[in-house]
Amino acid sequence: AFLKYEQMKSKFDYMQEWGVDTKEDIAKTLAVFGGFTEGVQLFASFAILMNFPRFNKMKGMGQIVTWSARDETLHTVSAMKLFRTFIDENPEIWTEQLQKDIYKACETIIHHEDAFIDLAFEMGGVEGLDAEQVKRYIRYIADRRLVQLNLQPIYRTEKNPLPWMDEMLNGIEHTNFFENRATEYSKASTRGTWDEAFD
Question: Is 152 left (phi over 0), alpha (psi -120 to 50) or beta?
Fold first, then answer.
């Protein structure tokens, strides 16, 4: 059913164009998948879905999406770090052309995501959210991803149009463990060494 929608098929088809044949290809693929697929495209869906629990609707689904969003955030941060390390180790590929290709990929992904957002909101907005807010949000996120890739922002969205997303994704979670499982990542309080773990 997913690929029956032209908006979805276009997103899927575009993602098939990336490869790893050259160092430049590897860098572009890291930027596109880490920065813009996991780091932008998914966040449009996350924003749409996480809006409902703000109004006490679909709270169970919201918890699952929060887990996914936090997980994808870790993937994105890791991919960005890997990209920067790859560029540091291969400075000769950090050319104006590679940078232009990454900017173009960002713009193309935003274009495809706009079409998806229009499809998702074809019957109008929902309580607390409309298509234009989500479009502004993905531009805000795209600028953040570009900066993480050591590039300049292109959309210049200074202020987060959906500040509640940051609160939901990054805030300290207070969950009644009798009713729900917490979705935040935390470090376990352990003692000892790995050598002792297997004794």
Answer: beta
Q: Say how far residue 123 (Cα) sits from the centre of its chain.
A: 25
* pTM metric for this prediction: 0.82
Q: Assign 149 to helix, strand or coil.
A: coil
The 10s digit of each residue's pLDDT in 131-189 is 999 999 999 999 999 999 999 999 998 899 999 998 888 765 545 555 555 655 555 54
Q: How many domains does the chain have?
A: 1
Of 141, 146, 159, the C-alpha closest to 84 is 146
What pLDDT shows up at residue 62? 85
Q: Is residue 46 part of a domain?
A: yes
Task: State which residues form the domain around 121.
Answer: 2-172+181-186
CA separation for the pair 119, 38 (Å, rounded): 20
Q: Are 195 and 183 in contact (CB under 8 A)?
A: no
The three-state secondary structure class of 193 is coil
193, part of any domain: no
